[in-house]
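Course assignment 3, question 2. Fill in each field.
Student: A.L.
Task: Predict the tertiary structure for the chain below.
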Amino acid sequence: MDVVKRHIESLGGMVSIESSQGKGTTVTLRIPLTLAIIDGLLVRIGRENFVIPLSAVDGCIEIASVERSNLEKHRAMLSYRNMILPFITLRTVLDIEGEVPDIEQIVVVTLMEKRIGFVVDQVIGDNQTVIKPLGPLFKNVPIFSGASILGDGSIALIIDIPRLCQYSQKMEEAK
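Answer field:
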C-alpha cells in the first residue's frame, strides 16, 4: 500500500484510509484531473451554474415550490416511478441565497443502485464538460470534483454526487 501511496502522491493525488472496527475499511484514491471531458447536465441555482455527471442521471421532474414545501414539512420525499424518492435541496446544502422559482426541477440520480433527487432552480440541458481541477483553495471542499468554463466565460462547479450525499447526510445528522 505504501508503494501505491507514493505513486499516487507523485502524480499530485491523495490516498486516504478510514477504518471502523467491525465495519470495514474504506480506501479512497484521489487522482488529479488534468484534462478530461465528461457528459454533464448543466443546472442553475440562483445565479450559480453546476454540472451533474450525466452518467448518474436517471431523469428530471418538475415540482411546484409550494408542493415541495408541504412535502418537506413531513419528510423530504416524494413518489417517483412508483417508489419513494428522497431529495436534497441543493440551494440549502450549498447555502445559495435568492428567490426560489415557482416551479423547480428535481434531477434524479442513481447512486449505488439507489435513487435520490437534487432540487435545482433550472435544468439548462446536457453539456460536454471539460473538467479543470480546482486549485488549492478548494482542496477541503469535497463536494466538487472540478470546474468547467462555459461558453459565456462563466464557471460551473462539477458536483461529486457520492460526496454531496455524504455531506448532506452529515448536515442532517447535525441538526
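Instructor remarks: DSSP finds four helices and twelve strands in the chain. The two ends are 38 Å apart (CA to CA).
Grade: pending
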